[in-house]
From TrEMBL, chain A:
Cellular component, GO annotation: plasma membrane
CDD domains, sorted: TM_PBP2
Residues in coiled coil: none
Matching Gene3D superfamilies: MetI-like
Domain of life where this protein originates: Bacteria
Topology of this chain in the membrane: Multi-pass membrane protein
Keywords: Cell membrane, Membrane, Transmembrane, Transmembrane helix, Transport
Family that this chain belongs to: Belongs to the binding-protein-dependent transport system permease family.
Subcellular location per the Swiss-Prot or TrEMBL entry: Cell membrane
Segments traversing the membrane: 6-34, 46-69, 121-142, 154-175, 187-205, 214-235, 250-268, 311-333, 353-375
Protein name: ABC transporter permease
Length: 385, 345
């Protein structure tokens, strides 16, 4: 059956039109930030360079795409329209009269909607996993760099152990249906996810331990929120039912955190070893401050520049890792709309149809590129200070 | 220096011991063993049959005993058939002597691949050779290109050339192999038809420009940007040094300054980076070999992992961990040798 198409300009304007919530949100954010950039500190400085604006725009574009995915995507990413199998870009779906802007894939799903919904998966898992890795790496890297000696040797040995694993082998061993039958992902999750709670409790204790009432409030808040997320993620038993995670997602999450925390550890350790020789640290030591106070309130804030840059790069790297997982069909469900799975599905049929492969490829590449540009601009700015 | 290398080798051996233990543990988890039993028997085999098979082939011995046997520090018992009382090899496709012997990794016996039905060494050596060829060409493309790009960009910081090359390098670091592979295949194989989108023929018919360019390009592009960025940073730093200004003020031409004075010092840092690229290249090898169907190490690793081929997967991890650790060692030693200011304690 011959499908009607809307032509090249139809596709172009169709895509621009579908993304309208993103354009609106982008316009508001960029205009406001430009207006008040003098008062926005480091974030405002990003608007001084072309690279910074480009990176920020791309990242915000995907962020808003993920937020407004339901409005942007015309179709359900999992729904199959038999008549649209391998349809060319711009073909019109007869029933609804709406166009498959980027065509249909092998299983007759809308490639455009899948790309849009794929951004949700990537933009939830990649930053969250990076933040957890940051927490784990920081909590372990601070004492390793500050105390040195035996703690440092043991922790560095463990970090090097994980780093010596080629990532792909690690994933093939850690992200399998077999391992989900055992309790290893739960154990690992239990260990990793306790770190943010420890981190924040120590953070508040070292500063506000002398003011019991304030500290009690902070500790209660940390334990309540942290414990709530912890129960939801590790045991999948959130009493409110808001936080839930499927076993395969937990598996991926844990593997990604596991693979990237040693990198954070090494960076934090190096930064601390450098910063602990500064005068303000010596001053704090003379004042008689405890070691953890110095680490968390003197050293860490002064290491924030390189750490922010690293987090940007690392989110990009985590996105690439997620894509790798999807490409090898590890962990994510085979029908999942994420970009890696999309690339895997379509790259096998490149000889016949190229249109289902390009949207996820361009999406993944542009998002990582945006993060890299952002990191580059941030680095330039922090060097200037 | 010598004691440093010896100490590092000791740490390396310890790391490998720990890592193989972890891999051994993960591979021998109960679900994996069951999967292996099912794949070796047939799909309808009952749980008792599977259990008997695992029991008979020694998979039910104590974990550490089996690890010791694999390593070669504990003796392997011959496999006795309970019906006849004589020794039979565990797998029909691998020979096994009928005596008690020490035969593990330390003795050079890597075991038996259940997926390819050959001894592991027989499968792995040709695969490693194939990957070696791929790696050689990737390095031959990646290293000169990235160094030239880095030096050109870092030569005059902030110039238009620098900006263009820097953005190009950032872009390549944002394209992992599975992305660039698709893009290149679409452009050069589907659209222009210049190159072959599959390297399957390279395995048996030999490497040609037609079938090998795409995999090499795909793999090289991801690392190029990163090395180029490091070279650029190093070059920029060198160009601000006093001795460069002295050379300029002496009246040497810009080109002579760059080639004679800056280049040598600027290339020390990228050396480390290039060596540390090897672990990344391992992941790239796996992706590229699967994508272009090239029968090398990465292909063997994926097949082994997908079919729970215990011995082959262990051998693959051993090799990859060895590659990672030895390149780290070489990069440290090489850095110390190249840079006279660094002295190893």
């Amino acid at each position: 059956m011959q499908l009607e198409t809307i032509g090249f300009f139809g596709i172009l304007f169709g895509v621009i039109e579908r993304f309208w919530p993103v354009w609106a949100a982008l316009a508001v954010v960029l205009a406001l930030s430009m207006r008040y950039k003098k008062r926005l500190g480091l974030y405002g400085h990003l608007y001084d360079s072309g690279v910074g604006i480009a990176g920020l725009t791309i990242c915000l574009f995907w962020l808003f795409t993920a937020i407004f995915a339901d409005t942007i995507a015309p179709f359900d990413p999992l729904r199959q329209f038999p008549v649209m199998k391998d349809a060319m870009p711009g073909s019109i779906e007869p029933e609804s009269g709406m166009a498959f802007l980027f065509g249909g894939d092998r299983l007759a799903r809308d490639v455009f909607s899948r790309m849009v919904f794929g951004s949700q998966i990537v933009l939830v898992i990649a930053p969250a996993a990076t933040l957890f890795a940051l927490m784990v790496g920081t909590t372990l890297g601070l004492p390793a760099g500050y105390y040195g000696g035996r703690i440092d040797s043991v922790l560095s040995f463990l970090a090097n152990l994980v780093l010596a694993f080629p990532v792909i082998l690690l994933f093939y061993l850690l992200v399998t249906p077999g391992i989900r039958e055992t309790s290893i992902p739960q154990w690992l999750a239990g260990i990793f996810f306790i770190f943010p709670i420890i981190f924040f409790s120590t953070l508040f204790y070292t500063r506000y331990g002398g003011r019991p009432r304030l500290f009690a409030v902070q500790l209660a808040a940390t334990l309540l929120i942290g414990g709530w997320i912890y129960i939801g993620l590790v045991f999948d038993a959130d009493p409110l039912g808001i936080i839930s995670i499927r076993p395969n997602e937990l598996n991926i999450f844990v593997a990604v955190v596991f693979a990237s925390s040693p990198g954070v550890f090494r960076i934090v350790r190096g930064l601390v070893m450098d910063i602990k020789t500064r005068d303000y640290v010596a001053a704090a030591q003379t004042r008689g401050e405890g070691p953890w106070y110095i680490m968390l309130w003197e050293v860490l804030p002064n290491a924030r520049g390189p750490l922010i840059v690293d987090v940007c790069l690392r989110i990009g790297y985590t996105t690439i890792l997620l894509g790798t997982l999807g490409y090898f069909g590890l962990g994510l469900a085979p029908e999942s709309p994420d970009w890696g799975t999309g690339i895997k599905e379509s790259s096998r049929l490149l000889r016949l149809y190229i249109h289902p492969a390009l949207p996820p490829v361009v999406a993944l590449m542009s998002f990582v590129l945006g993060l890299n540009l952002l990191a580059d601009a941030l680095r330039e700015q922090s060097l200037k200070d | 220096m010598l004691s440093f290398i010896i100490r590092r080798l000791g740490v390396m051996a310890l790391t490998m011991l720990c890592l193989t233990l972890v891999v051994f543990f993960l591979i021998n988890l109960e679900p994996n063993l069951r999967k292996l039993a099912i794949s070796q028997l047939d799909m309808r085999a009952s749980v008792e049959d599977q259990e008997r098979w695992l029991q008979r082939n020694g998979y039910r011995q104590n974990f550490f005993v089996r690890y010791g046997q694999w390593l070669g520090v504990l003796p392997k018992q011959p496999n006795i058939d309970p019906n006849t009382g004589s020794a039979v090899p565990r797998f029909s496709f691998c020979d096994e002597p009928a005596t008690v012997r020490y035969s593990g990794v330390l003795q050079g016996d890597l075991g038996c691949s259940t997926k390819f039905k050959v001894p592991v060494a027989e499968k792995l050596l040709p695969a490693l050779g194939a990957t070696g060829i791929l790696m050689f060409w990737v390095m031959a493309v990646m290293v000169p290109v990235s160094l030239i790009v880095g030096v050109l960009a870092g030569m005059r910081e902030g110039s238009r050339l620098d900006r263009t090359l820097s953005v190009a390098s950032i872009t390549t670091t944002a394209t992992p192999e599975y992305v660039s592979g698709v893009i290149f295949t679409v452009i050069f194989a589907s659209w222009l038809g210049w190159l072959n989108g599959s390297a399957a023929s390279a395995t048996n018919q030999g490497v040609t420009f037609y079938n090998f360019t795409l995999p090499v390009m795909t793999m090289a592009i991801y690392g190029t940007g990163y090395i180029a960025r490091m070279t650029r940073a190093s070059m920029v730093e060198v160009m601000t040094q006093q001795y460069i200004r002295t050379a300029r003020l002496k009246g040497l031409s810009f080109n002579a300054v760059v080639i004679k004075h800056a280049l040598r010092n600027a290339l020390i840092a990228p050396f480390t980076v290039i060596m540390l690229q090897f672990p990344w290249l391992l992941t790239g090898v796996v992706i590229v070999e699967v994508m272009f169907r090239y029968q090398g190490f990465g292909f063997a690793l994926v097949e082994a992992a997908a079919n729970n081929d215990i011995d082959l997967l262990l051998a693959c991890s051993l090799i990859s961990v060895f590659v990672v650790l030895s390149t780290q060692l070489i990069s440290d030693v090489g850095y110390a040798l190249l840079n006279p200011r660094i002295r190893v304690r």
